[in-house]
């Protein structure tokens, strides 16, 4: 146990996670799940997760997942570098010249991104930090796992407002943001990743109870899986809660999410 903690500390120090957060996994546990389910990692992911003992639960599983997620993140991107990758990562499954916008679900021609250096005249969408950029104190600003293309007007409305529960399509209510039924699971898994990878505060953007609820209610989509695979090829690391949403249940408790393993 001491050895794992030491490794995690060293990785955090080297790669630049937030050091003074008061929202570690141990402090936000809902009802730690001691489920004895035996997880069988898919063959294509065995090598990636080979250092993790999946019989662990709660804080011990969190530490193991964090260690691998940090260690595998070998290519730290700047925010500016997102232009080289994001429009392919968010490309439409039916038309690779379009991107799919978070929250609205609309498709736009990929060259319509907002930038003073973009020669294309029609510019309609920009980059949404699902975990608000204004709250980040480290290299997470350029992490593709929580960057999504978004309609410029919708992105402005979302701003850095906390997430709140709701139903139907996206909406701003009482200075809080509901991402929409189609996107709430995506959002939850991105926020849980940011906490795992950088120790970013969960309470600054919502609540652990809310994100665990969304993780269970909105299953992982093919779009999320494709993004996860593409981002691993660029950054080196994966979002484990996309690989298996049930891992969040085993770490934090809450409603049981689907077990894809």
Task: Summarize the structure in words.
With 261 residues, the protein is of the alpha+beta class. Helices cover 34% and strands 9% of the residues. The chain contains nine helices and seven strands, in the order H-H-H-E-E-E-E-H-E-E-E-H-H-H-H-H. The strands form three sheets. A three-stranded mixed beta sheet has the order 5-7-6, with no helix packed on it. Strands 1-2 form a two-stranded antiparallel ribbon. The chain has a two-stranded antiparallel sheet with strand order 3-4. A hairpin with a 2-residue loop joins strand 6 and strand 7 (176-178). Helix 5 (184-198) packs across helix 6 and helix 6 runs antiparallel to helix 9. It starts with a helix and ends in a 9-residue tail after the last helix. Mean pLDDT is 90; it is low at 1-23.
């Amino acid at each position: 146990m001491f050895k794992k903690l030491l490794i995690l500390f060293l990785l955090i120090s080297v790669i630049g996670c937030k050091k003074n957060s008061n929202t570690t996994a141990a402090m936000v546990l809902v009802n730690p799940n001691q489920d004895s389910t035996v997880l069988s990692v898919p063959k294509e992911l065995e090598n990636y997760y080979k250092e993790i003992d999946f019989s662990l639960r709660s804080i011990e599983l969190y530490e193991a997942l964090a260690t691998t997620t940090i260690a595998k993140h070998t290519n730290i991107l700047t925010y500016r570098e997102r232009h080289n990758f994001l429009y392919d990562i968010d490309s439409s499954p039916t038309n690779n010249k379009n991107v799919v916008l978070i929250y609205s679900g609309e498709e736009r021609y990929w060259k319509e991104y907002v930038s003073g250096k973009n020669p294309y005249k029609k510019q309609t969408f920009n980059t949404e930090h699902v975990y608000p950029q204004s709250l980040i104190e480290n290299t997470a600003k350029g992490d593709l796992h929580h960057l999504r293309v978004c309609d410029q007007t919708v992105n402005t409305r979302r701003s850095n407002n906390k997430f709140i529960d709701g139903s139907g399509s996206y909406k701003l209510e009482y200075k809080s943001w509901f991402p929409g039924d189609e996107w709430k699971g995506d959002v939850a898994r991105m926020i849980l990743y940011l906490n795992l990878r950088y120790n970013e505060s969960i309470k600054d953007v919502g609540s652990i109870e809310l994100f665990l609820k969304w993780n269970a209610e909105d299953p992982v989509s093919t779009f999320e899986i494709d993004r996860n695979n593409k981002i691993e090829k660029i950054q080196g690391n994966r979002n484990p809660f996309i690989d298996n949403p049930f891992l969040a249940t085993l770490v934090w408790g809450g409603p049981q999410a689907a077990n894809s393993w």
